Amino acid sequence: MAGATEVKICGLSTPEAVAAAIEGGADYIGFVFYPRSPRHVTPQQAALLAKAVPASVKIVALTVDATDDLLGEIVEEVHPALLQLHGVETPARVTEIRQRYGVPVMKVLPVAGPADIAAAHAYEDGADRLMFDAKPPKEKKDALPGGNALSFDWQLLAGTEWKKPWLLAGGLRPENVAEAIRISGAPGVDVSSGVEEAPGRKSTALIKAFLKAAKAG
Ligand SMILES: O=C(O)c1ccccc1NCC(=O)[C@H](O)[C@H](O)COP(=O)(O)O
């Protein structure tokens, strides 16, 4: 996809939101398998939603330190193109998951400062893709590992080089995504809260506006 920014719309849970992402030109759509999330879907619900997704749009299954049983069920029911690992999975666990299920993996790295960017290099060999997302707020004890509408300093990624394709996430919205791409140099972006009317409730208009702004950016 040289030249065009890849876009992932995450946390979809209705046929309307899935249709808006496809119509708007999303490259990836994400389903969240994490019961604490307002965007959580079961593998069976995701499998139904996935029926409307053309092969040109990749389905991403997002899990957080998932057990092998859950990963196996998701792979069997949903047939994702990518497993997004959003927990504290080690490089060894990332490699193990990739080998066990034969599905490419995207490891998410939480970022608050330069040390987090440096630490991400440990995942370059084992993961197929990387995603840099804002670190959850420390002061909020029950904060989710992602989907917090928080951004980090995009400049931290400017000029960095990676062996694998990567996405920028965290606090992106239709109004700021072009600037985020320009500053960070991100080849891909991901959004959840920035295309919602309320936590877990996606706006079809915001999904389309985000895609338009990111693809133009
Ligand atoms: O979105 C969630 O509810 C979620 C829950 C647990 C782990 C990860 C989660 N989301 C991960 C994503 O890929 C989000 O799109 C990413 O964190 C950006 O979120 P936002 O800042 O809300 O756009």
TrEMBL record:
Q: Which GO terms describe its molecular function?
A: phosphoribosylanthranilate isomerase activity
- Annotated EC: 5.3.1.24
Domain N-(5'phosphoribosyl) anthranilate isomerase (PRAI), residue spans: 7-212
* Swiss-Prot/TrEMBL catalytic activity: N-(5-phospho-beta-D-ribosyl)anthranilate = 1-(2-carboxyphenylamino)-1-deoxy-D-ribulose 5-phosphate
**Which GO biological-process labels does this protein carry?**
L-tryptophan biosynthetic process
**SUPFAM superfamilies, sorted:** Ribulose-phoshate binding barrel
- Pathway it acts in? Amino-acid biosynthesis; L-tryptophan biosynthesis; L-tryptophan from chorismate: step 3/5
Q: Which UniProt keywords apply?
A: Amino-acid biosynthesis, Aromatic amino acid biosynthesis, Isomerase, Tryptophan biosynthesis
HAMAP family documented for this protein? PRAI
Q: Name the family the entry cites.
A: Belongs to the TrpF family.
Q: What is this protein called?
A: N-(5'-phosphoribosyl)anthranilate isomerase
> Could you read off the lineage of the organism from its UniProt record?
Bacteria, Pseudomonadati, Pseudomonadota, Alphaproteobacteria, Rhodospirillales
